[in-house]
């Protein structure tokens, strides 16, 4: 089905609830609905199995309009239908929950509640997900009138005594725990070794990036967003630049798009090899960990050679890319891929045939296709359950039309399938990279880009190594965005982990968490934490001066 | 004079200082080999000693709400058990210092003391990781202990003696690794279970329960447990070598044989994925114990037939 028929169908489904519709872009449909109609409208979409809930964007329209707006983005193929709900701009406007129909919505709803002060009626767990425990009540960082001074903390509320909650024996994992390379907090209720319940708390590395983008200009944001994640930094810059280019209606040279896809491919190799090592380590198979990380160095060195950086490649520009690929680069890419392909085939063989490793992966955490759909799983986690969901194919962006990738799925849905899917995906990626290198379009690598972006809003979706990254960008016509919403794949995949953990052994938990390749720093982007005993607060320019002074002296 | 020699043998040679130092060297060999198998550089030869000295100089933190006597006493008991076991074992290719009828059984029990102490230390703690670790340690103890015991009883039955000295003397003319291969394999794997080495490191699986039963230990207590473990490594490896690989014989040759066992263990550690505790128990009782029993049965029948 084409995007147009998809949108038409969505329009028909939502017609009974619509107060107004329009098509802001060819692939998008905006439907205004009343807050009370929301559960019915969502039921109508899910009953007709139209797409999946990709993100909920909360927005403050400012004192003038005196309204808040919640945007429910549903995606089907390349089509994006947005349910727009207007709410009065009071302390706790009410909106009904949709988590009973779409479990993953509970995370978005918690975010909506703590960031914008929307009371989501009937959400299963209204406790804080991102904001710190001693954040003052009634202060919502994404409201337009939020002042940094308001964040001055109150006396921390007494945290509940850890350990026995009711009659359950709770095993805490995190925020500091050897299984987690980044801070997150999980509470697993156990009966002996068997898990009977799971809870999660995020926000330990929240940096307030969404808020910060509103204070920086379009170009500065590129470098800020690159630092969302150290592993898929290129995904974020390319998603952002793609969105901003759509808003500015700038045509990006084909060669630049090809280079973006090339770097994205290399990034995928580096990310999946990193993940392979970590998961092997969680299973207690350190040999595979050491080997895969050694081989990952190959692709890291390659990225350094091409872009100059190992982690934040900084190759995307608004309107193009920064570095070109020359013949020397192509030669070293081919050489490195020869080695990597051989190693990846070997790892694929190991993860599908090593008896002792299969004991820990086969049949563990099995997620059926129906469950994957219901939990809103994304990326390799979804594809390992046979769910064909990949933005690179559903809505080819950038150079993916020119150099398509083939989709890898697996029907089994257990940890073994996730290992196999990721390794096979790497082989496909290697092939695509070779194709790009050999068939690079000639031409410029960047084009001129305006400082100010015309008012408007757009949606940009990019397939990260972990799944779909969703960007909603709204411009007011100025030098910086009015609202930028980022939804990373890890947040959607948590639901599947927390639900699938129940009934498994405690020993399987680290594997299950690692199996979806979580990225905490992606999830956490939004907070300034200041405590009473913090020495002092710096403004942006003070911090800048401090940095220049500090690092200037060292030279 | 006898008291003096007894003290000497207990404090310095062959038990005591010598044993502790050799324990560290064996530990280093193990760590270095695993590191090389894993494509890492590995520690320098004095690293275990440096680790121990560092731990001994560090502050020992006692968490609130647990029994002090147990907290401070258990590491000492654990180390004492391992050191005492050394008196009856052919350490470094030398004949055991002491010997009495039935010392094999006593030695095996002394070797289990370390695990029991670890388990108790975990139970005594207030941490949930140590509690789970202790449960796993003791569960695992019940899994490998019987097969390991049976595997060492095989040679003893062949030698018609419960005395370690006599069994190793008998073993010098009979390489029991060939006559009782099943027993040797079970003894080797049981040894890894006893020392909680990968793949049997579920009791201290860091990605699940941090450091298991010893999570709350720091400084001296942790150092004593570590020393106890490396002493146990030497004692148990010596025992298996003496029983299965041709007795005591030449000390130099004995050293080579023990290192071969360490090499085999390091290889297995690098090759295998950690087993879950239910998989460990299942494996030992479904295969280990049955095979060990089968071997004993064959031995008994053969002996009866030959007699």
Characterization of the model:
The complex is a heterodimer of chains A (555) and B (307). Chain A has 555 residues and is of the alpha+beta class. Chain A is built from 19 helices and 15 strands. Chain A has helices at residues 3-14, 38-47, 62-65, 105-116, 209-213, 218-226, 233-248, 254-282, 286-307, 327-353, 355-361, 369-375, 379-383, 391-394, 415-438, 489-501, 509-515, 520-523, 540-554, and strands at 20-22, 28-33, 52-60, 67-76, 79-88, 94-96, 119-121, 169-173, 185-191, 194-201, 316-317, 320-321, 456-464, 467-475, 481-487. In chain A, α4 (105-116) links the parallel β6 and β7 (119-121). In chain A, α10 packs antiparallel against α15 (415-438). The longest helix of chain A is centred in the middle third of the chain and has 29 residues, at 254-282. Chain B is an all-alpha fold. Chain B has one domain (2-306). Chain B has 13 helices and no strands. Chain B has helices at residues 2-11, 17-37, 47-57, 68-88, 103-124, 128-159, 164-173, 176-179, 181-194, 206-209, 219-244, 251-271, 277-306. The N and C termini of chain B lie far apart (45 Å). In chain B, 51% of the residues are buried. At the A-B interface, β8, α8, α9 and α11 of A face α6, α10 and α13 of B.
Distance, first to last CA of chain B: 45 Å
Shape of chain A: globular
Instruction: Output the CATH class name of the largest domain in chain A.
Output: Mainly Alpha
CATH superfamily of the largest domain in chain A: Cytochrome-c3 Hydrogenase, chain B
- The computed structural class of chain B is mainly alpha
Q: Please state the CA-atom Rg of chain A, rounded to the nearest Å.
A: 23 Å
Mean pLDDT of chain A: 83
Write down the overall mean pLDDT of chain B: 85
């Amino acid at each position: 089905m084409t995007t147009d028929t998809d949108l038409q169908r969505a329009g028909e489904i939502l017609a009974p609830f619509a107060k107004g519709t329009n098509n802001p872009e060819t692939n998008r449909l905006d439907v205004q609905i009343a807050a009370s109609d929301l559960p019915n409208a969502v039921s109508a979409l899910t009953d007709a199995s139209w797409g999946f809930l990709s993100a909920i964007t909360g927005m403050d329209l400012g004192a003038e309009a005196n309204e808040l707006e919640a945007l429910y983005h549903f995606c089907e193929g390349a089509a994006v239908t947005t349910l727009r709900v207007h709410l009065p701009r009071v302390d706790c406007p009410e909106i009904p929950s949709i988590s009973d129909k779409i479990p993953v919505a509970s995370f978005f709803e918690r975010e909506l509640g703590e960031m914008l002060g929307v009371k989501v009626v009937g959400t299963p767990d209204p406790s804080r997900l991102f904001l710190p425990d001693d954040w003052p009540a009634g202060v919502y960082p994404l409201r337009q009138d939020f002042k940094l001074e308001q964040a001055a903390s109150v006396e921390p509320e007494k945290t509940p005594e850890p350990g026995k909650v009711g009659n359950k024996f709770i095993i805490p994992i995190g925020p500091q725990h050897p299984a987690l390379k980044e801070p997150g907090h999980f509470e697993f209720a156990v009966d002996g070794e068997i898990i009977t319940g799971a809870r999660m708390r995020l926000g330990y590395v929240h940096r307030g990036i969404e808020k910060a983008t509103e204070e920086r200009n379009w170009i500065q944001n590129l470098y800020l967003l690159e630092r969302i994640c150290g592993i898929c930094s290129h995904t974020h810059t390319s998603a952002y630049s793609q969105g901003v280019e759509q808003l500015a209606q700038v045509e990006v040279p084909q060669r630049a798009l090809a280079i973006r896809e090339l770097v994205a491919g290399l990034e995928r190799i580096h990310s999946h090899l990193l993940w392979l090592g970590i998961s092997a380590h969680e299973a207690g198979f350190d040999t595979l960990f050491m080997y895969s990380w050694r081989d990952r160095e190959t692709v890291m060195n390659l990225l350094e050679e091409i872009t100059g950086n190992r982690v934040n490649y900084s190759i995307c520009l608004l309107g193009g890319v920064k570095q070109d690929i020359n013949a020397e680069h192509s030669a070293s890419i081919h050489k490195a891929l020869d080695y990597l392909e051989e190693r990846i085939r070997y790892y694929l063989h190991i993860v599908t045939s090593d008896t002792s490793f299969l004991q820990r992966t086969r049949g563990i955490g099995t997620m059926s296709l129906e469950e994957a759909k219901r939990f809103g799983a994304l990326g390799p986690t979804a594809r390992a359950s046979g769910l064909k969901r990949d933005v690179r194919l559903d809505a080819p962006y950038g150079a993916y039309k020119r150099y398509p990738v083939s989709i890898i799925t697996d029907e089994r849905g257990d940890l073994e399938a996730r290992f196999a899917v990721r390794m096979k995906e790497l082989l496909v990626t290697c092939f695509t990279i070779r194709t790009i290198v050999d068939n690079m379009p000639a031409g410029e690598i960047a084009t001129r880009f305006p400082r100010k972006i015309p008012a408007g809003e757009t949606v940009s979706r990019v397939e990260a190594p972990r799944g779909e990254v969703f960007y909603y960008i709204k411009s007011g016509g100025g030098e910086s965005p009015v609202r930028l919403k980022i939804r990373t794949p890890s947040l959607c995949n948590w639901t599947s982990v927390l639900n699938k953990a129940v009934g498994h052994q405690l020993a399987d938990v680290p594997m299950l968490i690692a199996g979806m390749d979580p990225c905490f720093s992606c999830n956490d982007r939004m907070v300034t934490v200041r405590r009473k005993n913090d020495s002092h607060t710096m403004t942006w320019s003070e911090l800048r001066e401090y940095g220049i002074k500090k690092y200037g002296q060292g030279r | 004079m006898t008291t003096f020699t007894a003290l000497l043998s207990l404090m310095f040679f062959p038990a005591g200082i010598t044993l502790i130092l050799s324990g560290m060297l064996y530990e280093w060999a193990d760590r270095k080999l695993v590191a090389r198998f894993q494509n890492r550089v590995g520690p320098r030869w004095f690293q275990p000693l440096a680790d121990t000295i560092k731990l001994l100089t560090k502050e020992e933190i006692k968490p609130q709400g647990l029994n002090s006597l147990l907290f401070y006493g258990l590491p000492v008991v654990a180390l004492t058990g391992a050191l005492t076991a050394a008196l009856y074992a052919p350490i470094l290719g030398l004949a055991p210092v002491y010997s009495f009828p039935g010392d094999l059984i006593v030695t095996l029990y002394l070797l289990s003391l370390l695990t029991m102490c670890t388990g108790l230390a975990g139970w005594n703690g207030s941490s949930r990781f140590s509690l789970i670790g202790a449960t796993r340690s003791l569960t695992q103890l019940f899994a490998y202990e019987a097969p390991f015991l049976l595997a060492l009883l095989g040679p003893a039955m062949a030698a018609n003696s419960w005395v370690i000295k006599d069994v190793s003397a008998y073993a010098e003319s009979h390489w029991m690794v060939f006559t009782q291969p099943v027993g040797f394999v079970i003894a080797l794997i049981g040894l890894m279970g006893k020392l909680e080495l990968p793949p049997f490191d579920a009791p201290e699986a860091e990605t699940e329960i941090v450091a298991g039963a010893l999570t709350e230990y720091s400084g001296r207590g942790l150092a004593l447990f570590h020393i106890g473990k490396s002493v146990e490594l030497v004692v148990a490896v010596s025992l298996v070598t003496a029983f299965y690989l041709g007795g005591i014989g030449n000390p130099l040759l004995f050293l080579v044989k023990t290192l071969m066992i360490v090499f085999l263990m390091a290889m297995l550690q690098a090759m295998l994925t950690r087993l879950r505790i239910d998989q460990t128990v299942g494996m030992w009782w479904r295969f280990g114990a049955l095979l060990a029993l089968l071997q004993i049965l064959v031995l008994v029948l053969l002996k009866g037939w030959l007699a």
